[in-house]
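Table 4 source record.
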Amino acid sequence: MPRRRALPDGLDPRVAEFVEQLRRTVERSGLGVAELAERTGYGRPSWERYLDGRLLAPKGAVVALAEVTGTPVDRLTTMWELAERARNRAGARHEQATGAVPVTPARGAPGESDPGESGPGEFGPPPGEPRRAGRGRAAGPGPGSGRTPMLLAGLVGVAAVVAGGVFLLGGGGGGGPQPTGGGGAPSSPGPAAPSAPPPSGVLCAGSACTGRDAEETGCADSRAVTAKTATVGTTVVEVRFSGTCGAAWGRITGAVPGDSVRVTVGSVRETGTVTAASDTLAYTPMVAVRAAADATACAVLASGEQGCTP
């Protein structure tokens, strides 16, 4: 293992302790990052971030690491749970203080090929480098005095377009504006458009996320949370939610080949299945949501057992 860089400043002690334990576990195993990625099913760029303290490893990756290194699973998962709670508390405190999820100022376009980029960590305020930066999105301006006029101008333009559309649909004053959706059944509400651009490295928002991979789009970064959970046999099924992306997905851990998970939002459904013999988790593509409560995740096990989140 190459010498790891120092952990980000301001990292919560619980998170720092967990990352140090991950490093020790990997070092004792003698595995390189490439081999670790191959054996666990989690990509090399992700492991670089987990071990550098820039992204909290998901529970499935922790379980996979324990299995390939012969480490007691309970010890690692207990430390992971403490780290996740500490990270979530830090994020909640920041949102209460600022009134919104922070947007990190762009710092260029670091990509997966540059996992050693310096910057604050991703576990809580100050917010850190998103998982996948510079892929398909130009670096935008950070929050500051120059941003407010641009947003106001954009909102004015949108309002003008909407007003024009309503006028045309209403026939220019003959019968007034027509009700949305006509006289048919009301359509299911879609996700609200974000009021500001997503952070650098987050590649979709709202309906643009439906059907896409949460890891690859950066939606599964440290801001994602487990909104609902249930246990089916020995398998845990979760609704994972990203407020940044306005999307949810289903995930199962402690699974075996043949187990599957689905997430449902209204009439939209996505599924994922454990296929490889070494896998213990699976997750679905994302579905756009207004709130995490709109999504339900269900596990269908190879044994025939089934169950869903509340």
